[in-house]
Specification:
This is MerR family transcriptional regulator. Keywords: DNA-binding. InterPro entries: DNA-bd_dom_put_sf, MerR-type_HTH_dom, MerR_fam. It holds the Pfam family MerR_1. This protein is an all-alpha fold. The protein folds into two domains: about 5-75, Multidrug-efflux Transporter Regulator, Chain: A, Domain 2, CATH 1.10.1660; about 110-240, no CATH class. About 65% of the residues lie in helices and about 0% in strands. It contains 14 helices and no strands. The longest helix has about 30 residues, at about 75-105. The protein is elongated.
Length: about 240
Amino acid sequence: MRIGEIAALVGLTTRAIRHYHHVGLLPEPARRPNGYRAYSVRDAVLLARVRRLTELGLGLDEVRDALADDAGRELNEILKELDADLARQEAGIRECRRRLGVLLAEPPGVCGPVSPGLAALLAQAPRTDSPSAVKDRAYLTLVDTAGPGAQEIFALLGTLVADPAVAELYERLDALAEAPADDPRIAPLAADLMAAVPDEVFAVIPEDGVVVAGFKEALLAEYAPAQAEVVGRLMDAFMGRGRR
């Protein structure tokens, strides 16, 4: 048989068969006087076995071991290892799906797994389509990396996020999306946002804050000018009061 004929017989491509020759998995048969390879039925049986093993998930090195004689590993041993590996993959996939389910159940704007403290805080927050609220919840995942201090803050903010009045504050911030940086609504909103924070929160703010240097500038860049002015004033007042 020519290479095209044996390829059609065993359900492989001629390219695959040439690759098996190249990597030494399948010995090259003798060539006829015209230069064409002459494949035997034995070659076809061998290729059929290679196809079955690769379809099971074995790599070519494992297939080579399976095809070897005394020097190779027993096929049953290889298949047991493959079964164990597939079981590990199944367990990994189940765990990934579990984590994905947790993420899908989280409020909009939350990126990735969060600590128990932040998860409890977000669970108390009402569902909202407010762009400002969605941003806030996403940014909390950064504060979440600050350690035990952040967890205390999350616990104390529970009553705040559940307060219906907070939704109105977010709406006021959303309303500044197209406003200039000197809009007269900026100062009253910043003051009202500051007043909404429970006093107990300030007692647990670390001396060096809960965010890394440069975070404020990066955060404000995400907002429109008037909104950035409100958030900047709030952050300054928040950290200033916390250091008293």
